[in-house]
Amino acid sequence: MTLLWGIFGIDMNVWLDAFLRLQIVVIVMTVTVMGLIYLERKFVGRIQMRLGPMRTGPFGTLQSIADALKLLTKEDVRPATADFWLFELAPYVTFVPVFMTLLALPFMEGWFVRDLQLGLFYIVAISGVTVIGYLMAGWASDNKYALLGAVRSAAQLISYEIPLILGVLAVSMVAGSLNLNDITRQQDTIPNLLLQPLPFMILLIAILAELSRRPFDIPIGESELVGGPWVEYSGIRWSIIFALTEYAGLWGFSILGALVFLGGWQFPFGTSSFWGDFDFLYQLVLVFTKSFFIILTMMWISATFPRLRIDQLMAFCWKVLLPFGFLQVLVNGIVLTYADDETVRDVLLFLTSGALLVVMTYAIYLATRQPSREERVGSMIAARSAQ
Amino acid sequence: MIGVLRSLGVTWSTMFRKPVTIQYPTEHRKVPERDRAFPILLWDFDVDESFCTGCHACERACPVECMTVTMKDNPKHAEGVSKRRKILDEFYIDYGRCMRCNICVEVCNFDAIAMNNTWVGHELSTVDRQDLVMDRDQLLALSKTRQIRAWVPE
Hints:
Chain A is mostly helical. Helix content of chain A is 70%, strand content 0%.
């Protein structure tokens, strides 16, 4: 890959280099988004014992292309009472941050649009901007459902940003760096998933919430709010919001998870050029496989659970994820300060984080436990006899 | 929390089950044995004519009056081939009107009319109501291909 890059002297010209890398990311993103839409429809279909798209192309593989064509040629309707500039710009404001997160991701060793020293921080910071787009769309649509959805999504996205940051922070403490390349390179023997299982769970849940995917889809909940902030959108604007933002976000975050927690291109065999010139292909396949594993897990979760109530959603964030995130950061600090030997440090990190994960699971179990029938009847009888 | 894991298990197991969906227009589920679509006329292969003699019994019994039958002298009776003195001349059933009550089948003295029990009887959508008025040849066509299954009286 670097060879190919060097032939044309592209690496000499910084602007051309950045531009070409951006183009590659855009193309790969678009293709991946189309693939993901097809994958999700098929996967959820199979879970619900349906077939999913079958008609367009062999096994419906051309469905995404057909959908894209249909959405691009559809009329772009704007309500008469909508605020023109806010309404027209909102899709871009939601999409651009998601796209910008992709710029800092190292898809292969030494291949990224820009190698940022604060890459992790940059991604977390930039992805928080999306909420402005949601609010703009909801406000500008002049529609009560849109506004409700926008306010809900503002509450949800800002809340779940914090556990996301804490989960990522805990890992960067262990790695001692915010540079994604460094974090990935350190995981040649043990992936961070083993060292930090709790932050991985927190990250997974926070990503689901950040992307407004199904158990956390109160901002766009079809049955209550029709489509949330996107009620009034159609055609190309809707496809930018829905298809691009949602699935590019899903893809970007899952790549992030694969790099930070699953060892990226480094983990099972390292990057020793065992595959020779095809080493970059191997790395690419590895990163994509890992990210698809995360994506499928998220789709599986999305297809399983019903939507949470808004108070449950908030309680889960502020009472469960946030305290345990802070606790993890605290414990990590103690372990990293006092454990000198690397093996001891790794074992301690695994044990503490695993223990915290078990405690968190047990806390959720206690909080959501339905009392048995006998207990409920008993308490009713006790309440009656007390009267 | 246990419910969370259990529900994940349920979706996991349904993922590997055979999908219940079938590709309908190209693939058909089997029609039940006594499925009742619209009435059709039956063909007597022994003498190569319809069982129906045009006796008007079904037309008179039809509650929605969707049938029109006319009768003529049977030329094959004159030749001595057939026992039927009279045979149907024209037979129209307006499928748009028929309510599939089965009365015409009940009253028929010659077991000449039967309820269609194949998929053909269900996929009749047209763009014009006129096309739902079936004439004699259309009503006899299915029986001539011997696709009516065995429960139809012989």
